[in-house]
Amino acid sequence: IMAELLAGRPWAGEFLVQHRNGTTFPAEVHDTPLLNSTGNLIGVIGISTDISERRRVETALELERGKLNAAFDTSAVGFIVSDSTGCEISMNATAQRLLGDPPPGDPGVSREDSIAEWELSRADGTVIPYEEWPSVRAIHGDFARDLELHCHNRRTGKRWICNFTISPVRNSDGQVMHIVQTLVDVTETRRLDRALHLNNIELEKARSGAEKANLAKSEFLSSMSHELRSPLHTILGFAQLMDSDDPPPTLAQAASVEQILKAGWYLLELITEILDLAQVESGKLAISREPTSLTEVLRECRAMILPQRRKRGIQVTFPETGNPYFVDADRTRLKQILINLISNAIKYNREEGSVVVECTAVGGDILPGRVRVTIRDTGAGLSPEMLLQLFQPFNRLGREFTEMEGTGIGLVMSKRLVELMGGVIGVESTVGTGSIFWFELNSSLAPLAVIESGDHLAPTQAHPDPAAPIVTVLCVEDNLPNRELIEKIIRSRRPNIRLVCAGTAREGIQIARTQQPDMILMDINLPGMNGVEALQVLRKDPLTNHIPVVALSANAMPADVKKGLDAGFFRYLTKPIKIPALIDTIDQAIEYGLVFTE
């Protein structure tokens, strides 16, 4: 220091100064020499400044700068900062890993070298000329955003997909000072996108296949329903006629007819339950849930099981309470469940046994969460092994070898229906004591208006009226035994009806135009033009559009019935028919036609 000062040169530097009290601090010292006229040092002007705070701030800034640099280098986004001519100034580690240093297109790298090492292309495989590279275009002020390119480094063989954004950094005068490139490697993202796309294609194929399978299954079920019901319609129809013939059958004949009817209706029940179960399993069974009074449904069930109860001498006790116990359920399906469980409790009970039906609220104090229905019997009970097999289709647990009738489907259907309505079902049993079947459904508030249901009322038996005016009924049916059955039913029950028959839809349409019948019975599955198409022709013709047409078909699936009613049929009767229901419908259709004509 003294050498500098003696030479007449000022000196500046930093010292760690120690105070007399022992503390130390950094100081910045400026020494200026004072020289006389001969150039000799005669004194020194020294200025010492405490720079502790400055050093603290600089240390903090350096620490933050280190953090920013670490974040800059470890970012998933590559950053390249260039000057306005495109020459690289800085590059983070991600960009270095992706591109190398210097980047392609940088003026510091020759055009030939860049082209030799790199190939850029679009998603369709089109190679991009060097002049169109994003970094080259940016030098001429053409900046890009979210430009996706496929990159190939010929030297390393690496291929990847990059999303480029190249933006200018301008000064206050709007001049470009720097160019910032951001690069995002989207190779894995695009790979996943492609995999997801392919997966979606496979899922769509699977969904389409499932829909086709469901459609095929529905068509098969509809076809099976038709094929099985058609012969049953003839069998049960003629058996009903024989049972009510005049003169009546002999005792032996009546016993035989009773067996035919008994077996026929049982077979129909089996067909219906199998198709219902198939619909449930395929998710096609429609459930219409609404607030439903358990008390009212049980009252209807009491009337329906009365003959079975009396036949076996079983005492059935229903809950005697003013509480209607409203539940969230499909009324028809709820009745189906109750009839099945109560009928089973009677069927598998001991002679002169008892069945107790109870309803209890389960849940909160104000609005119970669920309502439990319990059916307790005094039958033989079920062993633990039997309980494990209880809800299996067609498994009657050995009862199939007894005289007790059953399909082995009712309990399975009950379980599926309870679950479809958001409930649960269970059973407890003790061998030699009896069984307790129960199910729970979500409770509901009472509806604003409750209308008594009359769907349990059977059609009244029709009696011929000798004074009734002659009316004409047209029956369009291609099956000869079915036509003969309709003829016999009408001849024995409605002698005032003149029946005209046609074997095809076109023949039926022609007869309807010329003879103007009072109503038409129309089969759906007709050769050539089907019954629905024939109905459309009749509705468009002013000569026939007033005639009520009743569908009489073995297509008995719910979708078939809905389709028929939506098409405009006055009623839709499914085969096999019950004679009282057919006569009732014919009377209603004729009455409707007469009122319409007047």
Describe this structure in words.
There is one protein chain. This protein has helices at residues 2-6, 52-74, 93-99, 111-117, 134-139, 187-243, 251-281, 294-304, 306-312, 331-347, 384-388, 410-420, 480-493, 505-515, 531-540, 558-567, 579-597; strands at residues 11-18, 24-35, 41-50, 77-83, 88-91, 118-121, 147-153, 159-170, 176-185, 290-293, 315-317, 326-329, 354-362, 370-377, 424-430, 434-442, 471-476, 497-502, 519-522, 549-553, 571-574. With 598 residues, it is of the alpha+beta class. The strands form five sheets. Strands 5-4-9-8-7-6 form a six-stranded antiparallel sheet. It is elongated and about 165 Å long. 25% of the residues are buried. Mean pLDDT is 82; it is low at 449-462.
Name the strands of the widest sheet in spatial order: 5-4-9-8-7-6
Structural class: alpha+beta
CA radius of gyration is 47 Å
The termini sit apart by: 133 Å
Low-confidence stretches: 449-462
Beta strands, count: 21
Quote the average pLDDT: 82
Number of helices: 17
Q: What is the percentage of strand-forming residues?
A: 15-25%
* Gross geometry: elongated
Question: Helical amount among residues, as a percent range?
Answer: 40-55%
Largest sheet, described in full?
6 strands, antiparallel
